[in-house]
Specification:
Length: 127
């Protein structure tokens, strides 16, 4: 896959892997979202979901899916970070790195429906 499909070709570095924690493969992501596998690939291509390669296989952070849905605010945040020049690994590091001003990580804030705060921070990165 190319970068436009929101999947990194090379394997993930250990630092970022440790930040994210739990991962699921694309088949499990499709099952959790109750979608066909091709729809998952479409979500990746549209940058509404992000996957990176771990041990040669595309994987999605488990935290991106809750209650059978992609967490609210994630697609918009992914777009903002991409527009700010972040690649997939940099995006994951940003989303999963604790931010004392939130508090917690940006992905936790998204999961807690505090997306406005996250998007403000993401927009500021572009400047």
């Amino acid at each position: 896959m190319t970068q436009t499909h929101a999947t990194v070709e090379s394997d993930l570095d250990p630092r970022t892997d440790a930040l994210v924690g739990d991962w699921i493969d694309l088949v499990e992501a499709a099952e959790r979202l109750n979608l066909k596998f091709n729809r998952i690939k479409q979500l990746l291509a549209e940058r509404k979901l992000l996957a990176v390669r771990r041990d040669g296989h595309p994987m999605v952070p488990a935290a991106f899916i809750a209650d059978g849905q992609v967490i609210k605010g994630l697609p918009g945040t992914l777009t903002l970070l991409s527009d700010a020049g972040f690649d997939e690994v940099e995006t994951l590091r940003w989303l999963f790195t604790p931010d004392d001003t939130l508090p917690g990580t940006p992905v936790q804030a998204l999961a807690e429906n505090r997306g406005t705060e996250v998007r403000r921070r993401a927009q500021a990165l572009a400047f």
